[in-house]
Amino acid sequence: MPREFSRTRRVAQLVQRELAKLLAKQVNDPRIGFVTVTSVELSKDLKHAKVYVTRLNQEENSASKEQLLTVLTHASGFLRRELSHDLNLRVSPTLSFYYDTSIENGNKLSKLIESATHPDIDVTSKG
Predict the structure, then answer these.
(1) What is the model's pTM?
(2) Are strands 94-99 and 48-55 parallel, antiparallel or unpaired?
(3) What is the Cα–Cα distance from 36 to 100, expressed in whole angstroms?
């Protein structure tokens, strides 16, 4: 019978927290802006990690989504090395970055619902 809270899941949460810290404090690239790690999925052998990121506020000098993923992929070796030092894992996972659009989709959906319930509100404007 599988456990409710597996080791893979615990390590994934730990990797998520450490990556968020590293991106906030160690990666000094203005193209990244304010990046949030929304989730991490680890393979069962802990060798591969899918890292889902999003950017809460789009700054003028920040990169597009594709550029953001390219910058993060380029920094993945550094991030992987720092993770291995911080977490003391036997194997440090290979990091693959993906852009998480769930927050943007949620905001769009909220605006559509608001426009349906309050037709006098203009949802096409930003803000």
Answers:
(1) 0.78
(2) parallel
(3) 10
